[in-house]
Amino acid sequence: MKITPSARVLRMLGEIEFKEWQCVAELVDNSFDDFTEIIRSGVNWPNGYKVSVSLPDSSTPRAQLVIRDTGRGMAYEQLERAVRAGWSSNDMHDKLGLFGMGFNVSTARLGKRTRVLTTRPGDTEWIGVEIDLDKIGDDFEADDITEPKDDPSEHGTKIIVDRLHRTRGDWLRRNGAALRNQLGAVYSWLLIERGFELYVGRTRVKPVRHCRWGEDRYVEHGTAKERIPAYIAIDEKLEDGLACLDCGQWQLTMTDICSDCGGDRLSERQRRIHGWLGIQRHLDKTEYGLDFLRNGRKILRWDKQLFTWRNPNGVAGNEEPEYPVELAHQGGRIIGEIHLDHVPVTYQKDAFEYGDRSWRSAVEVIRGVAPLQPKRAENAGFPENTSPLATLFKGFRRNDAGLRCLVPGDGRKPIHEETRRWAADFHKGSPDYQTDERWWQAVQDHEAIKQRGKETKTTASVPSQPDVDAVLDALGVPGDAPSSGEIATNAAPDGQKDATSATPTAKENKETRGERIARYERLSNPHPRLSRPFGHPSLGYLQVETRLLDGEEGLRDDSGQPVPVLLDQRAGNDMTALIDPEHGVFRLFGSDYADLLLVELAAVLKVRARSEWSPSRLVAAIRSESLKDGVLDGTTVGAEARELLVEVRARMARELDRTGAAGKAFTHLTRDEITATENQMIASGKVGQVRDLGQEGGFLEHVPPLALVRLVETMPATFLDGHVFRGPYANVASDSARALSLARVTGYLSDVATHGTYAAGATAYQLQRARLSAALLVDELAGDE
What we know:
Elements: H1 7-13, H2 20-41, E1 50-54, E2 64-69, H3 76-82, H4 99-110, E3 111-119, E4 125-132, E5 143-148, E6 156-164, H5 166-174, H6 176-186, H7 188-194, E7 197-200, E8 203-204, E9 218-221, E10 226-229, E11 231-244, E12 266-284, E13 289-294, E14 297-303, E15 332-339, H8 357-367, H9 374-379, H10 388-396, H11 416-428, H12 437-455, H13 467-474, H14 484-490, H15 506-510, H16 513-522, E16 524-526, E17 532-536, E18 540-549, E19 565-569, E20 574-579, H17 584-587, H18 593-609, H19 615-626, H20 634-659, H21 662-667, H22 671-683, H23 705-714, H24 716-719, H25 735-757, H26 764-780
Parallel strand pairs: 1-7, 13-15, 18-20
Antiparallel strand pairs: 1-2, 2-6, 3-4, 3-6, 4-5, 7-8, 9-10, 11-12, 12-15, 13-14, 16-18, 17-18, 19-20
């Protein structure tokens, strides 16, 4: 069999660098191309569409890679063309790639000898060719081979590569799981939508799906409550074009000859951009961005280049990413799958031809011409960007917990670590995490907890009341509050609501334990941060769902006594933990929910494991294993403080831009602070913005942290009264009352700013204070009220 390549192809083959997984994917491409042709032909194919990849095994003397499919098989003439480098089908625009090109590159990089065997239904034998790179001479002739066929109805093609190159053979032996994951991502659309089956090492490849919000989820943006969905479908049909079937290039004008290769095989083809953009259910530092596909195979994954605006007028200096910009260190969550079957790709199939006009047209459809950021677009002289990507950006650029941004929270702040853990369970196939219901419930629970907190304090003062009383009321301190000594004397010794509540009611006497627990669950909301596995390798683990009681009655144990925490065993290792936030140990003494929960769980795990550990050792071990995010060290607390400062900076900057007070705020910076701000902006790559320092509020993203405190102190009316912080100011009559309200905010902010800068050498008490101040400052941030 002649497999003579052209000189042009030989030069090209020497320049192509393929990774091991790409070599396998090239061979899988050919099988999937055949399956696609079968589907388009409308022929009934009862044996299904299956590709099996057998990896080399070190236990066998002749290690080999085998790829076999259940396709139609080929006649001798088809096989001869298929293995000849540079051959392409008559319909290359509808296929994943060039069979001959990908076949020769991938097999040559994997091993020295390749055998291809193929058969069709009704054929009496397998026919094939053996390509031995050590034997093929200048005549480029390969040996024909045959194999007997037991079942005449058998059909398909198999490729056997042996005498593997050592490093690539070793990679294939060791990385079966990694190969499955990579192929599951690259072919996810074909595996899901076409129903193709792919096996690697006898294990079925699972499609890597996106963990995105459902098509019915949305946020409301702005005062007009514009509804912005978390999923936007895209289907843009462009004008049909003329394409060359030899080189793949689209023609600029109607012609009979390809302007690129001179070929005359031109065909009119459809050009269509379709797919979707959406919002991931969790933030990730790397796994966000857009996937671009050609003929069902992903060419780009997590691509972020459309998040950067490049001025179409050729003005340099505008290549700064526009997303994510708020809390950018946490990552992003805008994702998508875009099909660009008409856009040419590189031979490695790891990029599109970005200089091609069809790629540029696709970018314009998806993200528009103008910047995503409205103010940036206005400053650059562009109208508002209304593209699909700009629409998502407008609604989901921020990551505030709650309904406003569709971010799960715990009543105080987002729970990003938990949502990432849930996403891992989604990808593992856990049934409870396949829909977005767990995330949605956490969003609603956050709002419920936040609302309950608002209801316990007055958030606005009444000007006609005495000034001090109004501020005390706004700060949540009742005028008839007893002294600390009275609280200690009058508090019920075991956290009872009052002396009479210790006696169970007639209703409680009639309730079964199951009915009582069910009632508590109806009157409670999940606590996302404390709903997780608890345990230790030496003790085992419990899967705990923690719920906060939302009622005045309180929790009671089986004897009718009030308790702060109540456990209820479910099936297996599942456990429900109910917590009464109004119990005296929390309300009067400030105990942490986790502390008492761990005490209860430690007792259960001690019995289960028959452990001889002391109670304190048990609690310490479970805490260190299961609540690592609560560790108290300078690095962790400092990072938490800096993360909160990013949010505070962004809110303050927006308020300065809204009120036009950026210039005034800039005048309050000292010379040293201006120098530090300029240095930080230059270090962040924002050299071009230094000359315009102070014209917009964005400079607050780079000022020293303690400068934020002084700006709030010098411009309280700009930032209080619900603008950035909830505290009342403008409508409070007396200077002393205003000072008290301001001091509350600046005190917390000062602690956070200090430890966001100098947390490394802080003592445990200082770190505890910083963490408490951060939690209290979050409470002070203005919400939607």
